[in-house]
Amino acid sequence: MLRHPPTSALVSLDISRSRGKTELDVKDNKYTVEIKIEAVGNITEAEGPIDVCDPQIKEELEKLMGEAISSEVRAAVAKAQELRCDPFGFGELLRRTSPKEWKKIKKQWREIIPEVEVKVEAKGIIQRKGMSGEPPFLDPWITRK
User: Fold this and answer.
1) According to the model, what pLDDT value does residue 129 have?
2) What are the 10-residue block averages of pLDDT along the chain, 145 residues in total?
3) Which of 3, 57, 89, 96 is deepest in the core (most CB within 10 A)?
4) Residue 27: is it exposed, middle or buried by C-beta count within 10 angstroms (0-12/13-18/19+)?
5) Under 8 Å CB-to-CB from 63, ≥6 apart: which residues?
6) Would 48 be classed as within a structural domain?
């Protein structure tokens, strides 16, 4: 559920598909993981004075969707790093992309994982807006100015 700040409307989205790409970079014994996500979703419900058919509002909602996904992923990664675990497979990615580096540090990976810099970039795409038309709760006189 997203809150559209200019209108204070609540918008529910159903993510129908997503894809992600994870890259790991090693420089000077510093590890950086870059996660890129693209999520496609549909608006399932809008509560409040918002016209989801407006292209500008759609663009704003897509941006909010991407920010919400990024925030959730960052929180999950931070918790995993705090617990010194690797449920996202960053170590496996390092093993595949830099086997010599992995051999050197695999026994210390649990100590290294909290120090890995993780960058998250998510893009939201709204594909469908459900049943849409002029919102019945908006005053027709105001919307037709």
Assistant:
1) 76
2) 88 94 93 97 89 90 96 97 96 95 95 97 89 54 48
3) 57
4) exposed
5) 124
6) yes
